[in-house]
């Protein structure tokens, strides 16, 4: 039995005694303790506890805070201003006493003195899309008109996009407090790439002061909003009243509570029909779009739309006077697309939207909300509960990808509420992974559809460059190539885990379990890694180390094929890189037949060389590792024997 590379208790005692004995003893010949360099050594993860178990699931004492919002706001396009009043009912479900609370005031990213403007943060570029966090030079920011805590006027300390409120009396475990705020801001044309307006069309997000997350892992999560990192928010309920010009149509998070006041009888009838329809129903037709007399209960003054939502972590809305509006249904869910008459790629958007919601629901987790609405406009692509912003793309493929990608975010992070500001791979990466299969299904039988799932693999050589690539666990504000590190590489990681390591059945069962376990909760990377191990039955520390914590590279090779004196044929495989992965070996024999063997990752347990004994006595004329080209192998010239 070979000696284990793990230090064992007896060996430790021997080394300690030898050290005490000093020089001149047998112990002096023993080498000093050597760090475990095995790729299979355990990852150092936070110690499991009553909140987060060793199986990666919420524990018996798991808790998270709750924030419920009541907001009354007015959009004034003439002044290009949004004014609002809100009450936040904050419940301290933690076991801790909280002397202060932290909130985000993210409109301050557009203030002249913001970190983003001071540092001249470059835009994020994703292929043909660009997210400019400078607000286009717009001198904005949120004006806080008043703040009351428990009915008492209180001061706040504002630090850029964060705000601390020192409580008059510390909030004990189990207690709650009401915060009342009044505020206003001018709407930028491009609000840090994620909200803004294009003429009379407004897409409004990050618009109200909202609670930061206080959790059992890090306490207050109050990393400032400077652009690249997205959001981490508490779940709760919303009761929102939005006053807009009477000529405007509003789409928003939540259920519309006063349709009789804001929609015509014809629109209400069409919506009821659409909810039961598999095919597109026009709620507002091309000819009706922009015609207030045909589409609005009245066309002068203002009108108030009221929405409520529960078990959501955010609220956004879009408003404009000239939408086309299509809808259909899926299992009682209303699928809606609102777009301008100039959006030539959006005739098909309804079918794309319905396909995305249906596909993600049937494959992973049933969509839990009453509607899924997407709005075409100036924002390159952003997601909020029940509502997404998507531009009119240059092609069918681009439009479908952006539309489905933003809807995929309804699962990550709207349902599974991970910390986007720290771990984009758990949000953008997981979402890109599920998007690939969705796009392949939608365009099945076309060159695009039949190749899209291999897209991240094809990007590997270009983006995984030594000296430039960074580990996926880096914070997004520090990542030079977020398109790769936040989106494509984690999607490749998940695809390989599914197809090459665990197999689809095993992976899908575990990933669905992860979604169910952490729906409407806050998982950490350790929770995800532990649950995937627990459910799949495979230790995966080696996999996470290579893909998440390092920029390890894969280089598998066939070093030789030899025939021994006993007539057996042996293929020597080598792991020349710093990443370990399973191997697929294809053998070609002298009689022209071939065989393929899949070797598990444990082939590297004893080191970087593995000797495979070929069953039978056929003469091997060719041996090739990774014959399908499924792995991101950095040197394919050594993958086959004999060498070409």
Describe the structure.
The protein is α+β, with helices and mostly antiparallel strands. The chain has a domain at 556-641: Immunoglobulin-like. The protein contains 14 helices and 33 strands. It has an eight-stranded mixed sheet with strand order 7-6-10-2-1-16-20-18. A hairpin with a 3-residue loop joins strand 14 (213-215) and strand 15 (219-221). Helix 6 packs across helix 8 and helix 11 packs across helix 12. The longest helix has 21 residues, at 482-502. The protein starts with 8 loop residues before the first helix and ends with a strand. Mean pLDDT is 93; it is low at 1-30.
CATH class category label of the domain at 556-641:
Mainly Beta
Structural class, by secondary structure, is: alpha+beta
Specify Rg, calculated over alpha carbons: 28 Å
How helix-rich are the residues, as a percent range?
Answer: 10-25%
Number of helices: 14
Mean of pLDDT: 93
Any guess at the CATH architecture of the domain at 556-641? Sandwich
Kindly report the CATH topology of the domain at 556-641: Immunoglobulin-like
Largest sheet properties: 8 strands, mixed
Strand order of the largest sheet: 7-6-10-2-1-16-20-18
Low-confidence stretches: 1-30
> What percentage of amino acids are in beta strands?
25-35%
Shape: globular
Number of strands: 33
Span between termini: 39 Å
């Amino acid at each position: 039995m070979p000696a284990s590379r793990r230090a064992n208790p007896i060996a430790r005692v021997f080394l300690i005694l030898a050290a005490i004995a000093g020089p001149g003893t047998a112990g002096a010949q023993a080498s000093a303790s050597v760090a475990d360099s095995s790729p299979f050594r355990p990852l150092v993860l936070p110690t499991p506890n009553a909140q987060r178990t060793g199986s990666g699931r919420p524990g018996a004492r798991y808790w998270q805070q709750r924030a419920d919002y009541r907001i009354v706001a007015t959009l004034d396009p003439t002044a290009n201003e949004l004014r609002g009043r809100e009450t936040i009912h904050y419940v301290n479900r933690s076991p801790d006493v909280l002397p202060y609370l932290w909130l985000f005031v993210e409109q301050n990213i557009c203030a002249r003195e913001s970190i983003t403007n001071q540092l001249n943060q470059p835009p994020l570029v994703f292929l043909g899309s660009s997210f400019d966090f400078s607000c286009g030079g717009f001198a904005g920011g949120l004006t806080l008109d008043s703040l009351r805590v428990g009915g008492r006027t209180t001061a706040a300390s504002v630090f850029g996009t964060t705000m601390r409120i020192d409580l008059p009396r510390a909030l004990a475990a189990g207690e709650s407090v009401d915060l009342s705020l009044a505020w206003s801001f001018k709407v930028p044309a491009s609000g840090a790439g994620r909200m803004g307006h294009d003429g009379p069309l407004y897409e409004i997000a990050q618009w109200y002061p909202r609670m930061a997350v206080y959790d059992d892992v890090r306490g207050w999560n109050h990393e400032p909003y400077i652009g690249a990192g997205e959001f981490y928010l508490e779940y709760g309920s919303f009761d929102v009243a939005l006053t807009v010009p009477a000529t405007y149509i509003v789409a928003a998070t939540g259920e519309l509570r006063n349709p009789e006041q804001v929609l015509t009888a014809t629109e209400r009838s069409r919506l009821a029909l659409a909810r039961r329809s598999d095919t597109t129903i026009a709620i507002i037709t091309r000819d009706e779009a922009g015609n207030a007399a045909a589409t609005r209960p009245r066309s002068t003054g203002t009108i108030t739309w009221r929405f409520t939502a529960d078990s959501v972590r955010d609220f956004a809305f879009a408003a404009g006077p000239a939408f086309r509006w299509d809808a259909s249904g899926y299992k009682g869910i209303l699928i809606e697309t609102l777009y301008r008459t100039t959006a030539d790629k959006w005739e098909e958007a309804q079918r794309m939207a319905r396909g995305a919601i249906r596909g993600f629901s049937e494959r992973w987790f049933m969509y839990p909300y009453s509607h899924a609405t997407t709005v075409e406009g100036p924002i390159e692509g952003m997601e909020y509960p029940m509502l997404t912003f998507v531009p009119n793309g240059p092609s069918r493929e681009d439009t479908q990808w952006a539309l489905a990608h933003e809807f995929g975010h309804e699962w990550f992070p709207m349902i599974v509420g991970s910390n986007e500001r720290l771990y984009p791979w758990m949000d953008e990466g997981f979402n890109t992974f599920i998007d690939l299969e969705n796009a392949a299904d939608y365009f099945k039988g076309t060159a695009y559809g039949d190749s899209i799932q291999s897209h991240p693999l094809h990007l590997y050589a270009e983006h995984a460059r030594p000296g430039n690539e960074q580990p996926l666990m880096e914070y997004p504000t520090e990542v030079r190539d977020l398109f790769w590190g936040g989106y494509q590489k984690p999607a490749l990681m998940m695809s390989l885990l599914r197809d090459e390591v665990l197999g689809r059945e095993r992976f899908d069962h575990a990933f669905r379990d992860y979604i169910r376990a952490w729906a409407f909760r806050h998982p950490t990377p350790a929770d995800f890694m532990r649950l995937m191990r627990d459910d799949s039955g495979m230790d995966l520390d080696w996999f996470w180390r290579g893909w998440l914590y390092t920029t390890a590279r894969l280089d598998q090779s066939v070093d030789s094929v030899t025939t021994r004196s006993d007539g057996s044929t042996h293929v020597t495989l080598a792991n020349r890189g710093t990443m370990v992965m399973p191997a697929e070996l294809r053998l070609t024999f002298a009689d022209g037949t071939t065989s393929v063997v899949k070797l598990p990752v444990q082939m590297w347990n004893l080191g970087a060389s593995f000797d495979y004994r070929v069953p039978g006595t056929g003469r091997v004329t060719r041996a090739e590792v990774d014959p399908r080209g499924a792995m991101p192998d950095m040197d394919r010239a050594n993958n086959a024997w004999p060498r070409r």
